[in-house]
Each structure stands twice: as C-alpha cells, then as structure tokens.
Write a structure and sequence with these properties.
Layout lengths: L6 H10 L6 E5 L12 E2 L9 E2 L3 E4 L13 E9 L13 E5 L11 E4 L4 E4 L7 E4 L9 E2 L10 E3 L7 H9 L4 E5 L3 E6 L4 E2 L10 E2 L2 H11 L3 E4 L7 H14 L2 E5 L10 H8 L1 E6 L2 E2 L3 E7 L2 E6 L3 H19 L9 E6 L10 E10 L5 E5 L9 H5 L2 E5 L11 E6 L9
Parallel strand pairs: 5-6, 13-16, 13-17, 14-15, 17-21, 19-23, 22-24
Antiparallel strand pairs: 1-12, 2-11, 3-10, 4-6, 4-7, 5-9, 8-9, 18-20, 20-21, 22-26, 23-24, 23-25, 25-26
Helix pairs in contact: 1-6, 3-6, 4-5
Length: 418
Amino acid sequence: MPEMISVEEARELVLSHIATLPAEVVSVLDAAGRVAAADLHSDIDVSPFSHSAMDGFAMRAAQLETASEDAPVELDVIDEVPAGATFDGVIGEGQCVRIMTGAPLPADADSVVKYEIVGVVTGDGKTGSRVSFSAPTKLGSNVRAAGEEAKAGEAVVHAGDIVNPAGVGFLAGCGVVEVPVYGRPRVAVISIGSELVEPIQVPGPGQIRNSNCYALAACVREAGGVPEILPTVEDSFEALRDVVREAAKRCDFVLTSGGASNGDFDFIKPVVDDLGELLMTSVNMRPGKAQTFGLVDGTPVFGLPGNPAAAYLGFQMLVRPALRKMQGFQRFELPQVKARVTEYLKKKDPRRIYLRATLTKDADGALAVTPAKNQSSGLFGPLQQSNCVILMPEGLQPCEAGEVVDCLLLDVNEETVL
C-alpha cells in the first residue's frame, strides 16, 4: 500500500470498491432527486387529445385565408367549450367555437386564434355573438397535438435519469405513480474520542462537544444517504472494533471521524486492518491527509480525521462520490470555475491545499475569490461562511493577487453545468 496517494487516485480507489445499491420502489413524489432504476413508460398519449393552448376561438385555418385589416372575416360563435367539456357538433362555414385553455379541439377544427386579437361585432364574444378576424392564421396555431409530449408505451424516463420536480409531474401525467429507484445508503456515523461530550453538555476540563457527527450526518443527508448517528466511542481499540464490526453488519457504509492519524490512541486503521481489508491510509491533501478506507465484510468503512475542516473536506472529496455512486449517480466531481484571487496566497506545504473561500463578482461582473482569514483545520466557522474552496496545486508555488485560480463550488451539485 503506497504511503500517500493523490486525491484523484484516492477517489478512483474508493469508487472501484463501491457498488450501486439494489432498487426499491417509492411513490412518484418520493422519487424526486433520485435515480430511476428502470425505464418508465406512459400508459396513454400525453396529451390524450388535441387541445387549445389558450383562450380563443376554434375554427379551420382555411376559413380565414382572405382575412385582412381592410376586409376582416366575420364568423358566428355557435358554442363555448370550457376545459373538461367537449363540442361534438359541426363547425359550418361562417362559424367558430369559443374555446378555453386545455379544452379538447373540436373534431373539424384545426386552429385557435387567441381571444385578445379577435374583434367582437355583436354580442359579448360568447355563444350567439359575431366576431371578426383581421388576419389569416396558421394551420395548427395555438393547438397542442395529441401525443405531443409522449405516446402510449413510450419510455418517458430512462434508467439512470435523475427524476427532478418537473419529472414528477410528467410521470404522474403518464400514469406512473410508483417508481423504481436505486436505494439510499444507510450510513453509520461514528465519532471517536474520549474527550467528546454531547452538544447539550457543557464541556469540562479537557473536553469538547461532539460536533463532527452532526456535520457529517448532515453531509450524508445532503448527499442522499440516510445517516444513523451512533454513540461516541472512547479511544480504545477493542471498543472501536466492536462498534465498527456491528455497524458494518447493519449499514451500507460506515463513516468515522477521529483516530485516523498515527498516534498512540488512533485506532481506526488497525481496526479496519484487523476486521477486514485496509486499502488506503493517507491522501495528498491539506487539510485531511489522514484518510482511512477499507472493507469490513464487504462494507465500505471510511475513517476521516477528527479536525472539523479536514473531516468535512475529506467527505466532499472522497465520501460523497461513494455515496452518490451507491445511488446510481454518474457524476462525482464538484463543479469547478476559475476566478481571480483578491490577495496574495503563500504556500508552505507541498501538498495540494484546499483553502476555504468566498466566491463573488467584482464591479466588472468577473468572478473574484477571497480566502477565509482563518484556515485552521479545527474550525467549522469558515466553512459556514464559504461557498467554495481554492485549489492550490502540489508544490510550493505561491499565488499573487489578481492571478486566476481554480475553485471548487460547495453550494451546487455535481450535475450543474457551468
């Protein structure tokens, strides 16, 4: 096992050991944001009938061929068709039908002229009125044809598609009320550290509140997984081994924070090695060098560092892609943009650096990025205020103010096209 690997190598290694979860069937509403596991077909033509796209008058376009401002064509309104009703009569020469948006087009009509451009000669424009048209209309104008959106039996959503809110409505209109989607991974979230106390407690000497488990559980949920926060585990090989073993049996993914380095009380690496197969221990990134990954009885186990920023960024770079793959998603890299940095960036560490930062637009509308003042890996606050991270490549090359840098966006999903 190499001592330290690149972020790209680490992501590839993790993803190579991740399988997509089996499908489950959910209601069409609950399918929003999830990946379809099978092709979904319409049971009818959508729309099942030709209908009007707006309020107006239905007739045959040929009736208005000679219409002009100087010689308008006048037609008698013989009926009204609201949405949900039908007109089963015949539209004779010199006649038309007033029609509402969504109403079925009469059988012998082929066009609709919108109400606003039609003149009223006598009456109020409703049944029994006479109306005038001062211009021809195109065949099929303002008509939505039957089957325009889908034909009966046609696949309207394909396996691998992400169902969005509009897709929920589309599927409902196609008669699809239950949707097979890839499962959501159940993720055990475990914080390691004898110094940790619950957020409701006031820390005593040498103690800190356990905030990592809440941040990571929120990250799991945002990635589509189902987090299960387990009780904090003391700094003990035996205690951690027992918890990880049981979590690996019950959950699809085990996520720990803390105890990932090489100190006397850091046990996640030896635990994974003892219970299963240890595949990774160190990644060329800062913060977040200490990253443990392996398999326990086939279940992925990932050990993040204890420092909040290191844990958070390790999750975004390596754990989030794994959870997305489990759910059938196919894009795993956060969107990236280029921006001019607003200040000088010194580099003392040859690792790849991820600087917490805020992306804005300058007075000219160009993207500008400003790093957080405090880049300590022990802080959540700068991450709360940041919407991106600046990537400083491997090496010791500094960056002058005004230079263009690469930024990974933290507030948009992987499908976003920039």
